[in-house]
Fold Aldehyde dehydrogenase.
Amino acid sequence: MDISNLVSRQKKMFQESKTLTHTFRLHQLKKLQKIIERYEKDIFAALKKDLNKSEYESFATEIAYINAELADTIRNLAEWMKPQKVKTPFSHKGSKNYIYSDPYGVTLIIGPWNYPYQLIMAPLIGAIAAGNCAIIKPSEFTPTVSRLIATMIKETFDENYITVVEGDKEVSTELLAQPFDYIFFTGSVPVGKIVMEAASKHLTPVTLELGGKSPCIVDKDAKLDIAARRIAWGKYTNAGQTCIAPDYVYVHEDIKELFIEKLQHAIETLYGENALENKEYTKIVNANHFDRLTAYLQDGTIRIGGQVDKDKLTISPTVMDCLDWDTPVMQDEIFGPILPVFTFTNLKEVQAAVRKAPKPLALYYFSENSQNQEWIIKNITYGGGCINDTMMHFANPHLPFGGVGSSGIGGYHGKYSFDTFSHKKSVTKQTTSFDLSFRYPGSKMGLKILKKVLKKK
């Protein structure tokens, strides 16, 4: 495929202004909605093939969210597209002032392998809604899903408008060399740096949805049964291959052993006494990631789990103890079903520990103390998170989702996806009914009036 020519053809279509109207965008969103409905069974099968995802997990974490996001966008698109009227200062008397949402043009969407359907479709919805063209690059690590998305998009859209380019990192490199108008990337921090460097050569704006070591904190007044169940769900969904999964847990020293006991019960309730025998337990994406994760098991003490099956690429839900921040498992985002546990006596200890790592994508705090809840929210920097839960902030379309610092740039979901793919164009519509002379040089009273006017701003 001639990628340079493809980008040129998409730029030509965008410049013809076909994507600008509400009618066009709405029609494309409804076409996407129909093809998703038609291929739902195939989406389930592809996720099962590539990651061994159960039908329940596929629906709950990939399909249902996209269906809801798409319906919400279709319902609200007309309102989102309206120019936003803003206040007019006294110095601009007679004018009307607006913010228009302008599409960027031809966008590049690069998706990851851990949620290979959802994390392609969610930004695509935003790109379409905002009036852009799009080239999609799914992950080569989930080839069945990648092929299916390519089939769905080809069947639905003109390739000069939206198309899929499949391939490995060489294809990604060629794509990143093109003069896109916007790039949306979801993936690892190291690759995010490559994307940002490539984008800088064309001064292309980017959204980077990355990751990091997201902490979970369980205080001594937490309701442990609920905390254990919600942490187990958040950590071991998709076998821990989730950018916002709890990466490690700090538990108050007074409740550590009781918490581990509750956590073991929660894991067995969710996955059975031997998760490796559970046919619906998600596998690790490939042998390289499996080997990386199993190497972590050599450090510390395994308190729960630790069983592995290399033939099936599965690792049981594991909890590790007796670790420190110098061990390999604490150097990078784990991205697998291994949960290190640490203890603390006061929250300032946790604050200091979290700051040892780059700013996390998410943070979760379990406590019944509202003052401590607010202290955590205000005194630790992170992308987003939950109080007394895990991951649920991601699923709320009324909350922007994104990181901070090395965990990401920008945010999306719902209206925020529309805004991410839109340039906010400022417009002043000035009256011609009169013309204030003091704004021009030569006015004897001009400076005095300007000083008086500008003080009123």
